[in-house]
Amino acid sequence: MASLVIRTGRADLSFDGIRTEFGLASSFDAAVLAEAEEAVSRDPGDRPDLTSLPLVTIDPPGAKDLDQALCVLKSGDGFVVHYAIADLGLFVTPGSPLDTEVRRRGQTIYLPDGKVPLHPTVLSEGAASLLPGVTRPAVLWTFTCGADGIPSNVEVRRALVRSTAQFDYATVQASFDAGTPHPSVAALAEFGPLRRAHARERGAIELQLPEQEIEPDGQGWKLVTRPRADVDSWNAEISLMTGMAAAAIMLEAEVGILRTLPNPDEAAVESLRKSAAALRVPWPADLSPGAFLAGLDASTPEALALFTDATRLLRGAGYSAFSGSVPEVITHAGVAAPYTHVTAPLRRLVDRFATEVCLAVTAGEELPAWLAEALPQLPSLMGSSDSLASKVDRAATDQVEAWVLAGRVGQEFDAVVLRAGDDEAEVFVSDPPVLAKCAGRRLPEGERIRVRLTEADPVQRRVRFTRD
Fold it and tell me: Which helix (H) or strand (E) holds 155?
């Protein structure tokens, strides 16, 4: 799907109302900032110097909070993957004002005109960030993999690293398209597809719904949708592999915290099968939901409707902390394997704690008391912050949709019906890229229709259509 742009025509539109509505912090307390400033010069301790590894980062353009750096290298018929993760354990003292504040925040909250960071930027965009050309403390995961892309050995340890370059996704994708990828990621074009094939074999469920993004353009804000490039998927597989390896370490030791999602119930799967049949999309009986969805052409209206319907397969995500025994639910249905979060500690609270569990377990050490005491609290802390982040993200998108469409009430648009009820449906308008409600009785799911804009209210952040 091509990038689609529409401008608000005003540069002074801010999201301060959303910040106020959801009580988002505008700054850090003096004690927190003072602790962060002191932590910048903290001695990293005795750890191996692995700055010779040719690590690079791949992030959105302009990003400064760089959690991960990687290099994927061929080794005979197999691969060696080095994945460095920012080491927040060095900078945050358990029980300190900084630790208390980041537990309260839970995660970085992103808004189009700025973010509410989890950590003070002197850390998240400075001393802890894996910026290029500077030595940084990190937690380094090293995977030795066979020709099939499956790890035969996993090592995790603290180290000193140095990223050699900072890239964005579009630049890396363009280098692959041109046949000139950076040596540190050249093998990703072979390794990534192997890992994606394993995900399909496991039955992982991935929904290829259009993602709305909001960007400044100098005159206001623009809504865009972009296709997911191969590099995005390949890079994500490295993070997923690391989360799966971390979960395996925890489960073997019977202590840790997992990111869980129950397997879809039979009723949800049967409902999706009925939708596929109604849309005349073949679904072989022996094909799992994940494999079926992976084979759809995401550009078709039928696929958009089925991806929307399939969201009911991925309900009930949460975190499960455990010690001394394994929880009843240990898998994440979207990943189709046990999984945990360890790769984004600058932006997500739980990753720091999960990483410390892995480091202690692999070193043969008991968990320190502060860590053991914190684990049971994390599911609630992360659940609250996940809910807040989701609400803020939806509110920001609703706001821009209303700004963009204000003044166009009465105009007609092409839309795809995603999910229909008796008297109302959810539709996707591609130009501008808007997801909204549309009045109409039993609208045809998976079909293109003409709709008329009946409401675009920037104050209520509400957009409504009706079938033309």
Answer: strand 151-168
| pLDDT score of 136 more than 50 | yes
Distance CA 231, CA 54 (A): 18
* pLDDT reported for residue 1: 33
- 145 beta partners: 79, 151
Q: Which residues contact 276 (CB under 8 A, 6 or more apart)?
A: 282, 283, 292, 306
Q: Which helix (H) or strand (E) holds 227?
A: none
Q: How many helices (H) and strands (E) does the chain have?
A: 13, 18
Nearest to 406 by CA among 449, 460, 450, 448: 460
In this structure, the number of other CB atoms found within 10 A of the CB of residue 37 comes to 13
Which of the listed ranges 93-97, 110-114, 415-419 does the model predict with the highest average pLDDT? 93-97
> Exposure pattern of 350-376 as b/e (b: 16+ CB <10 Å)?
bbbbbbbbbbbbeeeeebeeebeebbe
Q: Are 129 and 64 contacting, i.e. CB atoms less than 8 angstroms apart?
A: yes
Give, for 114, the enclosing helix (H) or strand (E).
Answer: strand 114-116
Mutual angle of helices 188-202 and 230-253, in 10-degree steps: 60
The position carrying tokens 């996707």 is 428
Residue in this structure with the two tokens 């119930």, named with its chain if needed: 265
Q: Closest Cα partner for 403 from 460, 323, 319? A: 460
The residue assigned the tokens 């500690």 is: 345
* CB-based contact 451:424 (threshold 8 Å): no
Closest CA to 375 of 266, 253, 264, 459: 253
Q: What is the largest CA-CA distance in the chain?
A: 69
Report which listed range, 68-82, 193-207, 390-404, 435-449, is most confident. Answer: 68-82
Give the Cα separation of 191 and 81 in Å (integer). Answer: 9
Q: Give the CA count within 13 Å in the CB-facing half-sphere of 405.
A: 32
- Phi/psi of residue 430, nearest 5 degrees: -85, -25
The answer to whether the bond into 432 is cis (omega within 30° of 0) is yes
State the pTM of this model. 0.92
Decide: helix, strand or coil at residue 468.
coil
Q: Give the DSSP letter string of 284-338.
A: -TTS-HHHHHHTS-TTSHHHHHHHHHGGGGS---EEEEEESS--S--EETTTTEE
The pLDDT value given to residue 326: 95
